[in-house]
């Protein structure tokens, strides 16, 4: 979860798709965290906890703001990939686990983040653990985003088939939790300028899109054909996304 990147969980990735996925990700984690720190005025964090860290994208986005980061995910494969793609100097400790049973002493955490992972993680047991491990007045950030690519697929002559909707809620948050007081609530659409090559990497980074693009453009050079098509389109190359950001302060100490 986390940046568990829902596509990684549900798609049967091959090496080629994984390479596109690794080559470029829209910097939405960084933008949402920057919005939180600018809006809240919060300074440097001593210890942050990233629950459902997935491949570590969300954890690495915390580096500029935190002295130390603990990142947990229940998937061994995700944690292994996160370690492989994180610089050795980074202040991140990756752990296999989940938010319901954290191997962390009481009142240690100053900031908790859920990057696209709360839909899978939210439970009474999670809330109990947050109350235990967080310092009084700790911050909890819930954020997510939905990237919109249909216009670019249509530009390339591809229409994706209708699929059954996933039981996934981008807007899930902690508004119903008395333990937490909401300070920030933001849902908006953003547009990021990208190169043709980076836009193509995003288009090729899921199994469904990859297979249709390969079939349309025939063969190993399909990626380069798509880059040329996008370059020659004359359109303003952007990736649009709906972003969701909710930030909370813990209002009840562990002793209450």
UniProtKB/TrEMBL annotation:
CDD domains (alphabetical): AdoMet_MTases
Family: Belongs to the methyltransferase superfamily.
Gene Ontology molecular function terms on file: S-adenosylmethionine-dependent methyltransferase activity
Domain Methyltransferase type: 49-141
Annotated protein name in UniProt: Class I SAM-dependent methyltransferase
GO BP term, pick one: methylation
Organism the protein comes from: Vibrio agarilyticus
Keywords: Methyltransferase, Transferase
């Amino acid at each position: 979860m986390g940046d568990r990147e829902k596509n990684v969980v549900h798609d049967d990735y091959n090496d080629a798709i994984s390479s596109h996925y690794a080559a470029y990700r829209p910097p939405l984690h960084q933008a949402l965290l920057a919005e939180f720190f600018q809006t809240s005025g919060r300074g440097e964090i001593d210890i942050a906890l990233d629950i459902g860290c997935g491949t570590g994208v969300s954890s690495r986005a915390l580096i500029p703001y935190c002295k130390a980061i603990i990142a947990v995910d229940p998937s061994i494969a995700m944690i292994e990939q996160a370690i492989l793609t994180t610089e050795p100097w980074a202040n991140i400790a990756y752990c296999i686990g989940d938010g319901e049973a954290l191997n962390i002493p009481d009142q240690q955490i100053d900031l908790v983040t859920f990057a696209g992972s709360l839909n899978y993680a939210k439970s009474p047991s999670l809330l109990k653990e947050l109350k235990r491990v967080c310092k009084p007045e700790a911050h909890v950030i819930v954020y997510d985003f939905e990237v919109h690519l249909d216009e670019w697929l249509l530009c390339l002559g591809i229409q994706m088939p209708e699929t059954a909707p996933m039981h996934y809620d981008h807007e899930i948050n902690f508004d119903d939790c008395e333990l937490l007081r909401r300070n920030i609530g933001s849902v908006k659409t953003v547009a990021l300028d990208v190169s043709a090559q980076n836009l193509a990497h995003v288009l090729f980074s899921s199994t469904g899109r990859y297979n249709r693009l390969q079939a349309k453009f025939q063969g190993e050079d399909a990626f380069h054909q798509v880059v040329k098509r996008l370059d020659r389109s004359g359109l303003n190359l952007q990736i649009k996304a709906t972003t969701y950001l909710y930030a909370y302060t813990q209002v009840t100490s562990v002793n209450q």
